[in-house]
Write a sequence for this structure.
């Protein structure tokens, strides 16, 4: 599984123990940027979960993404984060929301500027749902990023823009395969470059575990993923 | 499906063995990715019972 954040009453070690006791391992971890006093928790998290792939979750939208200069400033921070991760034997990646694929700065989309500005060893965890919400075709984007898109966030639903999104008010999502996403096209476009397909649902109608089971069935039945 | 059953079965890869019908438009990529799940998906359940 990919970790995010636990309730404040759960320590990092408790969380690691829960995961281990369930017989699971950690593919990747969403984390704050390793800047200032966040460096320690960055390293502690990687150690506790025995996880190498550390990913900047990217929430909320940074205002610097509204200009080319600001986007380049953020790219420099990501490069510093990558160096810190690498110096400690870890990988560093970026997870997106809609703004990277919706905002244009200097005539280019933000993600295009990031592709040019960040170290080529920084991997992208392409959230295919937010890419579609931004108005782009996820398969085209995944194909364009090629080997740099090591991880994909897989989620399905209406995937359309609405003005409430910046307030983190999202429409309910569906089990994978039941919404508007074209996952066969996305997997084909990935051309074997994807290491992990990470199912995520921000909000669902009904029981989330039933939705996860249906998502699992769809992805495994259609041979889009293997199960570790 | 109970949360614990889902997690345990998926972790062991047993859910696949329980599925009798294969997809109609299976695609077999050059190299299959491995399945993972973002824990944020089940944050409400975790808040009620982290273990």
């Amino acid at each position: 599984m990919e970790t995010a954040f636990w309730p404040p009453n759960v320590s990092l070690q408790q969380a690691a123990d829960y995961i281990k006791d369930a017989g699971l391992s950690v593919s990747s971890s969403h984390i704050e940027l390793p800047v200032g006093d966040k460096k320690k928790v960055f390293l502690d998290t990687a150690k506790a979960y025995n996880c190498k792939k550390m990913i900047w979750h990217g929430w909320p939208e940074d205002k610097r993404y509204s200009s080319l200069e600001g986007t380049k400033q953020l790219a420099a921070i990501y490069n510093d984060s990558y160096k810190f991760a690498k110096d400690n034997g870890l990988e560093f990646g970026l997870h997106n929301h809609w703004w990277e694929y919706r905002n244009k700065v200097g005539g280019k989309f933000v993600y295009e500027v990031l592709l040019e500005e960040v170290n080529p060893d920084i991997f992208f965890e392409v959230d295919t749902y937010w890419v579609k919400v931004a108005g782009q075709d996820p398969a085209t984007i995944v194909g364009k990023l090629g080997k740099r898109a090591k991880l994909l966030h897989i989620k399905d639903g209406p995937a359309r823009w609405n003005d409430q999104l910046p307030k983190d008010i999202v429409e309910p999502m569906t089990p994978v395969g039941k919404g508007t996403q074209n996952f066969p096209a996305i997997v084909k476009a990935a051309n074997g470059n994807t290491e992990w397909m990470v199912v995520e649902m921000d909000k669902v109608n009904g029981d989330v575990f039933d939705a996860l089971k249906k998502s699992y069935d769809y992805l495994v039945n259609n041979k889009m993923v293997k199960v570790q | 499906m109970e949360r614990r059953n889902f997690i345990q079965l998926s972790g062991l890869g047993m859910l696949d063995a329980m599925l009798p019908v294969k997809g109609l438009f299976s695609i077999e990529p050059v190299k299959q990715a491995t399945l993972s799940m973002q824990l944020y998906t089940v944050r409400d359940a975790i808040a009620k019972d982290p273990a």
Remarks:
- The domain at 2-221 of chain A is CATH 3.20.20.150 (TIM Barrel).
- Strands of chain A lie at 2-3, 28-31, 53-56, 91-95, 104-105, 108-109, 123-127, 151-154, 196-199, 225-226.
- Chain A touches chain B through 55 residues (CB under 8 Å).
- The mean pLDDT of chain A is 97.
